[in-house]
């Protein structure tokens, strides 16, 4: 296969190309797609009292300065999710948006412990999300799968308990991940539960190297045996790690607007995505918690390309990486990558 002729794509057409190109999203917390409008609608439907008088007051409260201050509001927003239909509605709102943005494949993280801790049954959470994923395939042409995340600020025993509760529904999610407050909660804390999940045949991912050090990326790989690193931008400070990630083709799910909002980078122009690609890493762009971090997937692409000067070649690489880094089957990956090539050929014509 010959590469598209990137030089023939004028820079001013980049935003249009970034929006039009088929892509996968591999790092989206479905609870982080809850828009203030939906939070208010669900609060009303379920009779939940919110600490904010109106939608605007809630939006105004989204002025976090770090991961922890974000998580505090994030968990408050999730408190309106009670019935199976609430989980469906939340996922469906995101999946419709994803379809509009030419997302062909998405792997949704969900945090069951945020809900089971409030007395919501595991089946309520998973069945609502799963039904939305099934409808997305049928009605939107979006291939969606679920990844259950353990909250790392809680104990490994709590993770085990969560896994046990979810196992009767195991055909409805494809893998497990590790999220929430990274600093002080290294991957080593979850070695036994990840070993068990590996044994059970789940796909494995973990957040590492967002605010935490490159050492957490090493231990996510070596102690947890994950197949993909969520964030991983701190890997840049460790040359041996960078070589390993490139050699083993371990995908990084990078989230530029999230990094900006949580001050992992002070300015989008300083973002290291271009360097990660330059070093041959399978880096991807993702939205993380789009309702909270100022943009869905295409916004992440457009603002990052605008700030960093990345061009059509990197756009093609990122779209291709997003599919090859996904957990979809090989045939689907090939089909989507062909579609990426066809889109670039059209823009280069
Ligand atoms: Zn995340």
UniProtKB/TrEMBL annotation:
InterPro entries hit by this protein: A_deaminase_dom, ADE, Ado/ade_deaminase, Metal_Hydrolase
Domain of life assignment: Bacteria
Catalytic activity: adenine + H2O + H(+) = hypoxanthine + NH4(+)
Keyword Hydrolase (UniProt): yes
SUPFAM superfamilies the record matches: Metallo-dependent hydrolases
One Pfam assignment: A_deaminase
GO biological processes: adenine catabolic process; hypoxanthine salvage; nucleotide metabolic process
Site feature Important for catalytic activity, where: 231
Cofactor note: Binds 1 zinc ion per subunit.
Transmembrane intervals: none
EC number: 3.5.4.2
Co-factor(s): Zn(2+)
Gene3D superfamilies assigned: Metal-dependent hydrolases
Function: Catalyzes the hydrolytic deamination of adenine to hypoxanthine. Plays an important role in the purine salvage pathway and in nitrogen catabolism.
Record-stated family: Belongs to the metallo-dependent hydrolases superfamily. Adenosine and AMP deaminases family. Adenine deaminase type 2 subfamily.
PANTHER family hit by this protein: ADENINE DEAMINASE
Name of the protein this chain belongs to: Adenine deaminase
């Amino acid at each position: 296969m010959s590469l598209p002729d990137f030089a023939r794509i004028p820079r001013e057409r980049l935003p249009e190309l970034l929006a039009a190109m088929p892509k996968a999203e591999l790092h989206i917390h479905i609870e982080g797609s809850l828009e203030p409008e939906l939070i208010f609608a669900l609060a009303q439907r379920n009779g939940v009292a919110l600490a904010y008088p109106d939608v605007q007051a809630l939006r105004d409260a989204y002025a976090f300065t770090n991961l922890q201050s974000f998580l505090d509001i994030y968990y408050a927003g999730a408190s309106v999710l009670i019935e199976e239909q609430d989980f469906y509605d939340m996922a469906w709102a995101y999946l419709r948006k994803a379809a509009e943005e030419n997302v062909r494949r998405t792997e949704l993280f969900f945090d069951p412990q945020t809900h089971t801790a409030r007395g919501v049954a595991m089946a309520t959470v998973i069945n609502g999300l799963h039904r939305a994923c099934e409808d997305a395939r049928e009605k939107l042409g979006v291939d969606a799968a679920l990844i259950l995340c353990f909250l790392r600020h809680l104990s490994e025993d709590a993770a085990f308990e969560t896994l046990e509760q979810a196992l009767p529904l195991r055909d409805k999610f494809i893998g497990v991940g590790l999220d929430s407050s990274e600093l002080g909660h290294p991957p080593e804390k979850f070695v036994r539960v990840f070993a068990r999940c590996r044994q059970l045949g789940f796909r494995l991912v973990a957040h590492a190297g967002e605010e935490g050090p490159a050492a957490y990326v090493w231990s996510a790989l070596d102690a947890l045996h994950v197949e993909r690193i969520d964030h991983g931008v701190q890997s840049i400070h460790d040359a041996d790690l960078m070589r390993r990630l490139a050699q083993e083709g371990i995908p990084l799910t990078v989230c530029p607007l999230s990094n900006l909002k949580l001050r992992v980078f002070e300015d989008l122009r300083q973002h290291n995505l271009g360097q990660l690609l330059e070093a041959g890493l399978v880096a991807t762009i993702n939205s993380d918690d789009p309702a909270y971090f100022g943009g869905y997937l295409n916004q992440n692409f457009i603002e990052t390309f605008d700030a960093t000067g990345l061009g059509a070649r990197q756009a093609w690489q990122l779209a291709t990486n997003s599919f090859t880094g996904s957990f979809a089957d090989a045939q689907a990956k090939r089909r989507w990558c062909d579609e990426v090539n066809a889109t670039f050929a059209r823009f280069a014509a």
